[in-house]
Design brief:
5-stranded mixed beta sheet, alpha/beta, about 300 residues, Nucleotidyltransferase, domain 5, 9 helices
Length: about 300
């Protein structure tokens, strides 16, 4: 058995993965703001405890970690959404866990998993996005991940879509993820609806699905979603114009909002004047492996 660990800006997910790419047991934990003050400690304590427990029930051959940001030589060089720089997570875990540990960028992990088992399986040329706390990405050309050399690249979330725009965690202004990540959408919804940070995705989704046109909050919610879709479509259209993928896969917590967001996104891309090469249809699919793609891909 292998264990996959997905580190997000707001969660840690740990799964036991078999040789067919199936998760047979999984644990998830939300990271609250007070825990982010010592995020490295929170990560290591959580991982170590679960690996200790799982080792009693499974023979674990390998631990794979999917993490956001720049990953090199077993280190998280910089992951702004985690508030981490120069974090040698593999070495730190090796001091307590005597099992081989590998780490890769989370979006690339998810793309690898979706290409082998999921929505990208039938395509040679694809684009994959993870929409969560930030925006991660990967490009597959001729069934291979795009090789960008010593630097990992594909930091789509940090392309600037608004000059002198919102300050990003990376220190730049106007980065795409400040407008089109799921965190941006959920934060805007919480603020508009008067909810605190403990209002999770399921609760927000329930509110969206049950808000009726006659409700006072309908117009507010609709305006937030329309603005979100516009910002998301701007970034995706830029990527389509560069790579012209056969299909676009979207993972992260976006998958749970599919019924509310996906059709709006497709219509915006097709009907607005955003694409250099016009299309009659748009193949956009949410991750078949849903939010588990990072866990599974980290073990491949």
């Amino acid at each position: 058995m292998k264990v996959g660990i997905d580190l997000g800006g707001s969660h840690i997910a740990i799964g036991v993965v078999n040789d067919k790419g199936k998760i047979i047991e999984k644990f998830e934990k939300r990271i609250l703001n007070n825990e982010k003050k010592n995020i490295e400690k929170a990560i290591e304590e959580n991982v170590f405890q679960h690996i200790k427990d799982l080792s009693k029930r499974y023979k674990i051959e390998k631990i794979g970690i999917a993490a956001p940001g720049t990953i090199q030589d077993g280190k998280i060089i910089k992951a702004y959404n985690l508030g981490i720089e120069e974090y040698n997570i593999v070495e730190n875990l090796a001091k307590k866990i005597k099992i081989p540990v590998e780490i890769k960028n989370d979006a690339k992990c998810a793309a690898i998993a979706e290409h082998k088992y999921g929505c990208l399986k039938s395509y040679k040329r694809s684009l994959f996005l993870t929409l969560g706390t930030g925006i991660g990405g990967a490009v597959i050309i001729n069934n291979e991940l795009l090789d960008t050399g010593n630097l990992p690249g594909c930091e789509f979330g940090h392309m600037i879509i608004e000059k002198d725009g919102l300050l990003c965690s990376c220190g730049k202004f106007g980065c795409w993820q400040q407008y089109a990540s799921m965190k941006a959408l959920k934060d805007n919804l919480r603020k508009a609806l008067g909810c605190d940070e403990k209002t999770d995705s399921k609760q927000l989704l329930n509110i969206l699905r049950n808000t009726k046109k006659e409700d006072k909050s309908f117009t507010i919610i609709n305006n937030i979603i329309e603005e979100y879709i516009e910002n998301l479509a701007i970034g995706i259209s830029n990527l389509i114009n560069i790579f012209e993928p056969e299909i676009i896969g979207i993972g992260g917590s976006f998958v749970y909002f599919k019924d509310i967001l996906l059709n709006k996104l497709e219509n915006k891309l097709l009907k607005d004047n955003l694409l250099f090469n016009s299309r009659n249809d748009m193949k956009i699919q949410t991750a078949i492996l849903e939010n588990d793609a990072g866990i599974i891909g980290s073990t491949l």
